Amino acid sequence: SQKIEQNSEALNIQEGKTATLTCNYTNYSPAYLQWYRQDPGRGPVFLLLIRENEKEKRKERLKVTFDTTLKQSLFHITASQPADSATYLCALDPVLNSGYSTLTFGKGTMLLVSP
Amino acid sequence: DVKVTQSSRYLVKRTGEKVFLECVQDMDHENMFWYRQDPGLGLRLIYFSYDVKMKEKGDIPEGYSVSREKKERFSLILESASTNQTSMYLCASSWEGEHGELFFGEGSRLTVL
Q: What local confidence, expressed as pLDDT, does residue B11 receive?
């Protein structure tokens, strides 16, 4: 069966360090992968999209890698700040039986950045 | 800025009631989606729509229906609410095409007693 796995344990790091979050998937061949941030009680907010033919994507302090051989994406936040504390979700695009493509989300990893 | 507005942030309903959750987007997006989010289960797709009057089932459509009479509005309907439908409901929209980012609303937290 298809699975998207993100570490269910919260990641605790100190301010200024690099946070690295992992997204592993099985039985998918996604054309792209997206990362979202979600604060408690709020809707997710889009951060980055990376396509299958891209190895790496950067946006300010964020970096995403996509290894289709390992079936893994890594999400990095450099120089992390307490304001980066949130849950981070990865999402893939499986094609449903209907032929439409929609996003399927991982369960997310909570990041806690302490001062 | 794109805005996706969900009509109610918090609702409390009784078992058997009919519940309407409304979602409106202001960016002329073709695609609209309804997800529910539960602890330990993550976000799960209920229904989606790629055009007016068009709807497709997601992963967990049972017990739900949807309506899209206008492009900007996508409604989720619980015909007869049950306690296992207590959840956070999230509406999202995106531009035409398969690879667009989703813009989410703030969510509607429904409690069914």
A: 96
